[in-house]
Design brief:
Blueprint: E1 4-13, E2 16-26, E3 31-35, H1 42-50, E4 57-62, E5 65-66, E6 77-81, H2 92-107, H3 111-122, H4 130-142, H5 158-170, E7 176-180, H6 188-205, E8 208-213, H7 216-222, E9 225-230, E10 233-238, H8 240-245, H9 250-255, E11 260-270, E12 273-278, E13 281-285, E14 293-298, E15 304-306, E16 315-326, E17 330-337, E18 340-347, E19 360-365, E20 371-372
Parallel strand pairs: 3-8, 3-9, 6-7, 7-8
Antiparallel strand pairs: 1-2, 1-4, 4-5, 9-10, 11-12, 11-14, 12-13, 14-20, 15-19, 16-17, 16-19, 17-18
Helix pairs in contact: 2-3, 2-4, 2-5
The chain binds adenosine-5'-triphosphate.
Adenosine-5'-triphosphate binds near residues 36, 39, 41, 42 and 43.
Amino acid sequence: MGSVVVEQLRKDFSGVTVLQNIDLDIKEGEFFALLGPSGCGKTTTMRCIAGFESPTSGTIKIGDRDVAKLAPNERNCGMVFQSYALFPHMNVFDNVAYSLNIKELRKGNLFKKVGVYTRMLNSKLVKYPKEIEKKVMDILEYVELTDHAKKLTSELSGGQQQRVALARALVMEPEVLLMDEPLSNLDLKLRHTMRNTIRRIQQDLKITTIFVTHDQEEAMSMADRIAVMKDGEILQIGTPTDLYSNPKTPFIADFVGTSNILPGKVVASDNGITTVQIGNQQIKSVTQTDKTDVQVIIRPENINVLNGGSDDYDNAFEGTIQFATYLGNTVRYDIKVGEHQLVVDTTYESGDSIKRSGEKVRLGVSPERVLLI
Ligand SMILES: Nc1ncnc2c1ncn2[C@@H]1O[C@H](COP(=O)(O)OP(=O)(O)OP(=O)(O)O)[C@@H](O)[C@H]1O
């Protein structure tokens, strides 16, 4: 399995720069996500790695090989796309066997037989060598499609088609698996199941995987590390927990999970505590900064709704409930504090009462949970 190292990748389309300063160091066996909003350059980065786009400048290495000058089929990358890109007139088995068989025919210099193979496929007369048959059936078992081997791919559900696409990529034993929004066409429930399937297979095979998504929950739940991209650049690379607890910019705080982001001014700093003025309120944080203008970041689950007078918090505020949204094991409240609107998540246990709109509450936040950027 290969590592993937990208240095100073840049891509211009007709003189317009859509990617710049892209540095990636993806370890062997790592599950790495490229995350960012539409148009930020995720797919272009992946297409440069796969060889479908040539970089304007920069280097790309897979394992020890500099792949910049290699054609896509020489890079040993498997690809899975959002659109599945399967052959609709072939059955599942033939779809998975196709590239493998072509590769074997080419290896044996049996170029003429490629045309014969394709014609036989069309008239459903193909007989595969035993090794190919075994390899394909093994991989189909792996993605739980053994019973569907003889079905046309057009007869399958979206999730099953995506598993065929995955099997077709994996059967080639690629060094790197590249997946571009593979779950976007699936409904929510299936997306969750497929996340687990992909993660299980990736961990079993320890295959280096680069996964493009605009869905932060998908990236957070699947990836070992994530690169957050915006406007053709990487803003931050980290584990899901790094990005969640130490976002380097307000954009990341907002894009990775939900955040309350409030502009404020530093008014004091002593004994390791920074005091920030937000409107007519003050808030204390353990973040040290030499800036005056800061963004105050507080995650919704780090704001506590206090019961009665138990407010030992260094940061305590009065607020008024605007809305309550019941989400099963949590209740999300929108709470007005001064001129600001805060999102607050509280755990919900059966029998708890849910606060109503207009109800006054006291809120507490510990300075350790207040981040300044
Ligand atoms: N072949 C091309 N010619 C010109 N511009 C392109 C081409 N391919 C991509 N772009 C532009 O490059 C930018 C990045 O596109 P890219 O598809 O990489 O973004 P993305 O983050 O994958 O977005 P999405 O999530 O919508 O697929 C966009 O502004 C896009 O319009």
